[in-house]
């Protein structure tokens, strides 16, 4: 087992379930988090699904967003959440793309969530970079493209499902054409509207990570920019905050463990996490880490109010 995975296993064994946090402790945590961010010279932000959930966009459980526009797909196929719909084994490609068209349109038309807008304001004026495992387009629309790495891709784009070429195309116009053709009650698109790669004729697929995910130039460019930013941040002796927001335990090697290790090995780095389901960090980060255990929406409301009060008093 590698040192990093050993660190992760140690952390899991020490934290079976987060303890309840009283209001006074929570307020102190949020105040400290605000001070840490205010003092930071550079911020490396890692965003997971909890961030979108805090904005009301729950892709993994049943939600009001699913019940209305996606009820017809539940009646036809039996699933009851957006991710279940994405991974469902459809009888035909026409049925699969009937759901995908509705899902893509929903994601691309959904307003940028309040927490994303608040984070953008909190980071305004600082040097920052955002790494995300989310594929719902919220990060892409909330932050400048040069400051984002979409590690798992984004439903806003389509790729050849092989892939035979390094090409991404906008997904929304394709989805709109399918939805218009299906009508309000339809659950399958006409065969002639199935999106196909013009190079090889195979079907296109959403640009989200699976066995055929395209790590093409767009993905590699994001990787290069992220690695360059982190390298510059850690080499300059400046105060760097690794800010982790709503990251679960499914893919710890993408955000969580690298953030721990970069904080551990750099004395000017601080690890800050906001998460409802976690309450502490590895012992190796003691003194240079903080976990705020609570709803991201509440935390950002408090941080934003605090920032606005300071600006008014200045």
Automatic annotation (TrEMBL):
InterPro entries: DHS-like_NAD/FAD-binding_dom (IPR029035), Sirtuin_cat_small_dom_sf (IPR026591), Ssirtuin_cat_dom (IPR026590)
SUPFAM superfamilies cross-referenced by the UniProt entry: DHS-like NAD/FAD-binding domain
Binding of Zn(2+), residues: 160, 165, 197, 200
GO molecular function: metal ion binding; transferase activity
Record keywords, A-Z: Metal-binding, NAD, Transferase, Zinc
Keyword Cell inner membrane applies: no
Domain of life (superkingdom): Bacteria
Record has Repeat as a keyword: no
Residue ranges constituting the Deacetylase sirtuin-type domain according to the UniProt record: 23-310
The protein, known as: NAD-dependent protein deacetylase, SIR2 family
């Amino acid at each position: 087992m590698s040192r990093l995975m050993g660190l992760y296993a140690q952390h899991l064994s020490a934290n079976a379930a987060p303890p309840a946090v009283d209001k006074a402790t929570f307020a102190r945590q949020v105040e400290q988090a605000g001070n840490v961010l205010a003092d930071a010279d550079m911020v490396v932000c890692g965003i997971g699904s909890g961030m979108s959930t805090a904005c009301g966009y729950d892709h993994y459980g049943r939600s009001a967003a699913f019940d209305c526009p996606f009820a017809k797909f539940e009646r036809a196929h039996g699933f009851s959440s957006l991710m279940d719909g994405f991974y469902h084994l459809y009888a035909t490609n026409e049925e699969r793309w009937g759901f995908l068209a509705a899902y893509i349109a929903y994601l691309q038309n959904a307003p940028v969530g309040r927490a994303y807008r608040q984070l953008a304001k909190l980071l305004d004026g600082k040097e920052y970079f955002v790494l995300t495992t989310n594929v719902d387009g919220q990060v892409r629309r909330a932050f400048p493209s040069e400051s984002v790495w979409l590690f798992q891709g984004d439903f806003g784009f389509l790729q050849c499902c092989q892939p035979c070429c390094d090409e991404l195309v906008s997904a929304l116009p394709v989805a709109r054409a399918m939805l218009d053709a299906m009508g309000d009650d339809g659950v399958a698109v006409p065969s002639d509207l199935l999106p196909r790669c013009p190079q090889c004729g195979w079907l296109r697929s959403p640009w989200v990570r699976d066995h055929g995910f395209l790590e093409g130039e767009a993905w590699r460019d994001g990787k290069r920019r992220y690695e360059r930013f982190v390298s510059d941040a850690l080499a300059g002796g400046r105060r760097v905050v690794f800010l982790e927001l709503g990251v679960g335990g499914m893919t710890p090697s993408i955000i969580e463990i690298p953030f721990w290790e970069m904080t551990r090995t750099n004395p000017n780095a601080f690890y800050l996490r906001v998460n409802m389901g976690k309450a502490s960090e590895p012992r190796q980060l003691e003194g240079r880490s903080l976990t705020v255990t609570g709803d991201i929406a509440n935390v950002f409301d408090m941080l934003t109010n605090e920032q606005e009060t300071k600006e008014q008093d200045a």
